[in-house]
Amino acid sequence: MVQGQEVFILCRLVFGALASFLAIMLWARNRDVAWIFVIFGTIITYIETVYSILNTFGIGGGNILTDNWDFIVSMVLTCLPTLFFIAGLTVMVARKYRRR
Predict the structure, then answer these.
(1) What is d(CA 54, CA 77) in angstroms, rounded to the nearest whole number?
(2) Cβ distance 64 to 41 under 8 Å?
(3) What is the distance of C-alpha 43 from the center of its chain?
(4) Residue 60, H or E segment
(5) pLDDT of res. 94
(6) How far apart are CA 66 and CA 64, in angstroms?
């Protein structure tokens, strides 16, 4: 492992966990569609972080998934949060311009 990579991994885990915790707390109080998309994006971003860290340590994938499935799961977990953020922002923009 490269020097400093432990700090990087720890920061990603801690800040991702904090963001996910706050997103879940907001989810319990908010039923707005745009915010729900942002919350889903935040939670899936943390899932992707944990998945990539497990793969870095050689724990994920391996014998359970073939290389093709591992690639597909990585692609979905990488792209899905951005799609949720786009959906949430699109809902907010549509609301903003619909009022005019």
Answers:
(1) 14
(2) no
(3) 5
(4) none
(5) 95
(6) 7
Distance from first CA to last CA of the chain, Å, rounded? 55
Full-model pTM: 0.85
CA–CA separation, 78 and 14 (whole Å): 19
Question: Phi first, then psi: what are they for 30, rounded to 5°?
Answer: -125, 135
Q: Which of 3, 73, 87 is nearest to 41 (CA)?
A: 87
User: Given this model, what pLDDT does residue 28 score?
Assistant: 86
pLDDT averaged over 10-residue windows placed end to end, the chain, 100 residues = 85 96 91 94 96 84 64 90 97 87
- The runs of H, that is alpha helices, within the chain are 5-29, 33-56, 67-98
**Tokens standing for residue 67:** 């290389």
Token pair, residue 14, equals 């801690």
85 in Cβ contact with 37 (< 8 Å): yes
Domain boundaries, the chain: 5-98
